[in-house]
Amino acid sequence: MPNLFRETAAAGIGNLGERQTLGELFSVAKSGIKGTVNRTVNGTGGVSGVKTLVKTGEHFTNGRRNRLKPDIRYKTGEFDYFYETDSLGRIEKFETDKLQLTKREKRLSHSKNTPGKVKGQEHAGHLAGDRFGGSPKIDNLVSQLSDVNLKQYKKIEEKWAAALKAEPPKEVTVDVEIVYAGNDMRPEKFLVKYTVDGEAFSEVLIN
Questions:
Q1: pLDDT digits over 128-156, tens only?
Q2: Residue 111 lies in a domain
Q3: CA 127, 129, 132: angle at the middle one, nearest 5?
Q4: Which of 20, 28, 45, 201 is within CB 3.0–4.6 Å of 24 for a Cys-Cys bond?
Q5: How many domains does the chain have?
Q6: Residue 161 forms beta bridges with which residues?
């Protein structure tokens, strides 16, 4: 299968490295056990293992809903986008095969205290933006440098929004891996893969 991804380098990053096929990047094998997904992704993120899909609202570890359970797969937000956590309860993946625009006009107030956030330097950044119906809670937010949140990631979101507003609307799929250094709670980088009407793109954002 030929490589379908257009390599796009983020500022100061250079080439993304080894080319991969769509099959390698989006390989998901469902296990025979109901409620679990065995995911294997070949790439920098090294995301792998069995994730248990939990029911809506059961992905938090406490009543205050400010901490996520480890090693789970869950759905959240207006359009039930998929997410996964690692063994430390950090969000390590956001994906959807049908990104959508919300019809809501008012922006939702969102949580500010994301894990590992450096005060004065970082924002509580949405993985699925508010305009795409993304959750305003900690289940869709990670610590992002202001430049990443307001410029680099936003630039990609603008492309998604433009595609969805086209006449006729284009189909957009999104697969974001959130990579961490060791046990750090703030992301080290974001591996953003997405398609627009089947044309695939890939970017790396250093955080």
A1: 999 999 999 999 999 999 999 999 999 99
A2: no
A3: 120
A4: 20
A5: 1
A6: none
